[in-house]
Amino acid sequence: MDHPLIIKFGGTSVGGGAQFTRAAKIAADAAAARPVAVVVSAMSGVTNTLLGAARGNVEADATAELRRALEERHLEAAREAVAAEYLPGVEERLLALLDRLVAAIQAPAVQPAARKAEIAVYGERLSSTILAGAISSQDAPARVVAEDPIATGAEFSASEVDVGETERRCARLVAPLLDGGLVAVVPGYVGHSPEGLPTTLGRGGSDLSATVLGRAIGSSEVWIMTDVDGVLDADPRLVPDATLMPRLSYEEAGVFAGLGAKVLHPKTMEPASESGMEVFVRNSFAPKRPGTRVTGFEAGPGVRCVALRREVAVEIPCTDGRESKAAMVVCIGSPDDEDLARGLKILRSAGIPAWHHGIASAGLVYVVAVEAGEAALRALHGSLITTPVVEEVA
Ligand code: ADP
Ligand code: ASP
Ligand code: MG
């Protein structure tokens, strides 16, 4: 069998019926050429709603309202994306999942952390049911992998993956579907504890689910489908002219994600670099664009991308004797002393005093007043990133 391709869809990529259809077409097109396993997040906003419900005891009225809202949103999406042939089955499964969710919310809290994880993962259980129906509707028969294939430790939140047990579970639960010519749809974010209870991989963890699954089933390629063109050289919500990074190394991607590049869960690259899988980050709404390709390579000298850490734990004495919280801009890459001095000059001409500066393993670090953080990020982004992408030496 060809190496299976993993395609992960984030929450905005399955935000409603039209988006499910778009995602299903991407998966069905790919499945025409090779075996495909899909990992899917909850519909956007659903995990937040569920975590809200998991906090404390929920009144009966509030639970009924939660169920009504989730039912309406998921059924509406299913009716738009799933063909008549598959719709009754999908609707039935969605309603059964919602019944189980309500039971989980109402169950006496034996162990709060276990209850929270159990409730939180219903977002992915619901979205995967719709996506499997939507992919089947695009003439690529698909099935949900209902028994969570990713094995974790006993922690209920941000649980560690058990690599060996995950491999065994995937061989039993995922590989037979792919061998049978089906698209396997795996709910992201959810893990399976040694006692057989649901755990989570942490917020944003569906990215990690994708590479963990890929390593377990011998994939060579993972696509992370999201709502931007790929990994940009700064957070586009803070830096409007952030530009696409066509290439990233596993290491850079891990460092950037760890410093706040929300587009990837910080641990996503660990399974990928261990097993040499290529990771592509692409736009669900423009899937033909090349996106960002993440592999193992040396990026060369200079600054590649910038990240802002707000409210770092350093408190800096101000001139008037008060203490102020600090922000830290990290310019990621392999810069040298000249780059450091250039950055200081850039900040000085923008009128931003740097309280501390230095070179750390991640790159250049500038500590500034919290209020100046975003301006510092934009100034350094605008003038410090000069490094051309160095092509891989074959
Ligand atoms: P998904 O639901 O697909 O997992 P996320 O919301 O988790 O999507 O991540 C995508 C978002 O991450 C983008 O919409 C963007 O606002 C934000 N983001 C932050 N930093 C970056 C970056 N460096 N490159 C791309 N996107 C980023
Ligand atoms: N749905 C989960 C979250 O919102 C996981 C994910 O989207 O990756 O955190
Ligand atoms: Mg995400």
Structure summary:
The chain is α/β, with parallel strands linked by helices and 394 residues long. It is built from 13 helices and 14 strands.
Description:
The chain has 13 helices and 14 strands. The strands form 3 sheets. An 8-stranded mixed beta sheet has the order 3-4-2-1-7-9-10-8, sandwiched between helices. A 4-stranded antiparallel beta sheet has the order 11-12-14-13. A two-stranded antiparallel ribbon has the order 5-6. A hairpin with a 5-residue loop joins β11 and β12. The longest helix has 22 residues, at 60-81. By secondary structure, the chain is of the alpha/beta class. The protein has helices spanning 17-31, 46-54, 60-81, 87-106, 112-120, 122-136, 163-173, 175-179, 206-217, 250-258, 269-275, 337-349, 373-384, and strands at 5-9, 36-40, 142-144, 183-187, 190-192, 198-200, 221-226, 247-249, 278-283, 292-295, 302-317, 323-334, 356-360, 363-369. Bound molecules: adenosine-5'-diphosphate, aspartic acid and magnesium ion. The site of aspartic acid (ASP) has 12 residues, from loops.
Question: Secondary structure elements and their pairing?
Answer:
Blueprint: E1 5-9, H1 17-31, E2 36-40, H2 46-54, H3 60-81, H4 87-106, H5 112-120, H6 122-136, E3 142-144, H7 163-173, H8 175-179, E4 183-187, E5 190-192, E6 198-200, H9 206-217, E7 221-226, E8 247-249, H10 250-258, H11 269-275, E9 278-283, E10 292-295, E11 302-317, E12 323-334, H12 337-349, E13 356-360, E14 363-369, H13 373-384
Parallel strand pairs: 1-2, 1-7, 2-4, 3-4, 7-9, 8-10
Antiparallel strand pairs: 5-6, 9-10, 11-12, 12-14, 13-14
Bound molecules: adenosine-5'-diphosphate, aspartic acid and magnesium ion.
